[in-house]
Design brief:
By secondary structure, the protein is an alpha/beta fold. The chain contains 13 helices and twelve strands. The strands form two sheets. The chain has a six-stranded mixed beta sheet with strand order 1-12-2-3-4-5. A hairpin with a 2-residue loop joins strand 10 and strand 11. Helix 1 packs across helix 4, helix 3 packs across helix 6 and helix 6 runs antiparallel to helix 7. The N and C termini lie far apart (about 100 Å). Bound molecules: fe (ii) ion. Fe (ii) ion binds next to helix 10. The site of fe (ii) ion has 7 residues, from helix 10.
Length: about 475
């Protein structure tokens, strides 16, 4: 209509909400972080202040990473949306989805709410949702780290170039001449394309770790030299399975496959080093049934892990194993005899206590002198490879300690540096061999997973040890 003046349309409710969120997003993010910090104050973690600070640091990186990825996704999808309202709706939907994901799955909240590991939730759709969540969580965190490293590298390269140019030009020309170093568009494009390629890699790797490496079992063969080994035990073979963690991502079929691999190694003795379930106590009977097929001439022995303690199923699972002829050693020893010679096998429950002093007292109660047999080789089964437990084992003169618990970090870059894995943030001994005052410790990576159902650089492991006198 000719001559009519255009009148600005009042903003809709969703547009107003969007603008408010955008205007105050820093306050919202800060609020989330403070809420999390308050949660730690009210429910301090058993690992103490260091673990709380570590979790908070990871949360801050998680939030920063998610904001980064939300912006990237909106940029990419937004190119196909022409209207401003289309972008507005997309942003609101993306933020709501992320808030849901945060509330649903951020580590700590999920285990506090205890809402994903119950048998009733093992519906295919729930398992797929969990898998997708963890794929995104691990992929986006790793990718964000890479983007930060890539960005820092680019920044450092530009700073060095700028400094070099300044020095060169200062020495060649009078100081009064201003030199400008305009950024090259083709270089920027090249860097952006590389950044996209680099940041896509962790998502592919996380998918590989979820779908393949998580159950790509490695048989690790180790020769152990023990100075006081009786002659008859030279060449004696012990297979170790650890951290089974039956749950939505570790099924009976997979465990039975591991049992078949272990039996195929024809060991003389089989040992289990704890953590039979993920979280659901009702799976103890099923996991014992899956492990009941283990066979070795000198028997199958084991110890209990923290997941048995946390689910209060220690007595129950020990009696289930006993029904199947598997001996769980609870502050007990089981001398293994070949003809007239003996090797002493011992097992302890996971030490516990609200404070470090309490845990130490509990450890001394469980791992006492009476377990050790002087004059022969002493082998200890203990789930957690903590410094305290290994120190105490070495102090008692134990020759070999077999442990698990760390899963080798599940995410590791051991090829770059030994111990370069996530569990190293909390534990000194995380996978493979360690020594202390003549005592040897082996930390097995386990066959199951907890937390994220992904393994990258830390394949599930079945170990077979060959004892040797020389
Ligand atoms: Fe454990």
């Amino acid at each position: 209509m000719a001559g009519s003046a255009s009148v600005a349309k009042p903003a809709s409710g969703s547009a107003r909400a969007y603008r408010r969120v955008i205007a105050h997003w820093r306050v919202i993010v800060l609020g989330l972080i403070l809420a999390r910090a308050a949660f730690y104050v009210i429910h301090p973690d058993e690992f103490g202040l260091f673990f709380d600070l570590l979790s908070l640091g990871l949360l801050v990186i998680f939030i920063a990473g998610q904001i980064f990825w939300i912006k990237r996704i909106i940029d990419v999808v937004g190119r196909f949306l022409t209207s401003h309202m289309g972008r507005t709706r997309l942003t609101v939907v993306a933020v709501l989805i992320y808030l849901f994901v945060y509330a649903y799955g951020y580590p700590g909240i999920q285990s506090t709410n205890d809402h994903i590991f119950r048998t009733g939730y093992y519906r295919p759709l729930t398992v797929v949702t969990e898998a997708l969540f963890w794929w995104w969580f691990v992929g986006s965190m790793l990718a964000f780290f890479l983007v930060l490293v890539f960005g820092a590298g680019d920044y450092a390269a530009r700073a060095i170039t700028w400094t070099y140019t300044k020095i060169r030009d200062t020495t060649r020309q009078p100081a009064s001449v201003e030199i400008s170093t305009p950024a090259s568009p083709s270089r920027r494009r090249f860097l952006q394309q590389n950044a996209i390629l680099v940041s896509a890699t962790p998502f592919v790797a996380a998918g590989y770790g979820l779908l393949y490496e998580r159950q790509d079992v490695e048989v690790v063969r180790q020769r152990v030299r023990l100075a006081h080994l009786p002659k008859g035990f030279d060449g004696f073979r012990i297979a170790q399975l650890s951290d089974i963690h039956m749950g939505p991502f570790t099924t009976a079929d997979y465990i039975q496959r591991c049992v078949a691999i272990t039996n195929g190694l024809k060991p003389d003795l089989i040992v289990l080093t704890g953590d039979y379930i993920a979280w659901d106590p009702s799976l103890e009977r099923e996991v014992v049934r899956a492990l009941a097929g283990l066979r070795a001439p000198q028997g199958v022995f084991g110890c209990l892990g923290n997941h048995e303690e946390e689910s209060s199923t220690e007595d129950y699972v020990a009696s289930l194993f006993a029904e199947q002829g598997i001996h769980i050693l609870r502050q007990q020893r089981a001398p293994i005899q070949l003809a007239s010679e003996t090797v002493n096998l011992m097992g302890i429950d996971d030490p516990r206590g609200e404070t470090e002093a309490e845990a130490m007292r509990d450890l001394y109660r469980r791992l006492h002198k009476g377990l050790v047999m002087p004059g022969t080789v002493n082998i200890l089964l203990a789930h957690e490879p903590s410094v305290f437990v290994f120190d105490r084992a070495a102090e008692l003169g134990i020759d070999l300690m077999l442990a698990g618990h760390t899963h080798g970090g599940q995410l590791a870059l051991e090829a770059v540096h030994r111990g370069f894995n996530i569990s190293h943030l909390l534990y000194r001994y995380t996978s493979g061999w360690y020594e202390n005052r003549g005592a040897k410790l082996y930390v097995n990576r386990g066959i199951g997973t907890t937390g994220f159902p992904i393994r990258l650089g830390a394949r599930p492991e079945i170990t077979v040890f060959e004892l040797s006198r020389a």
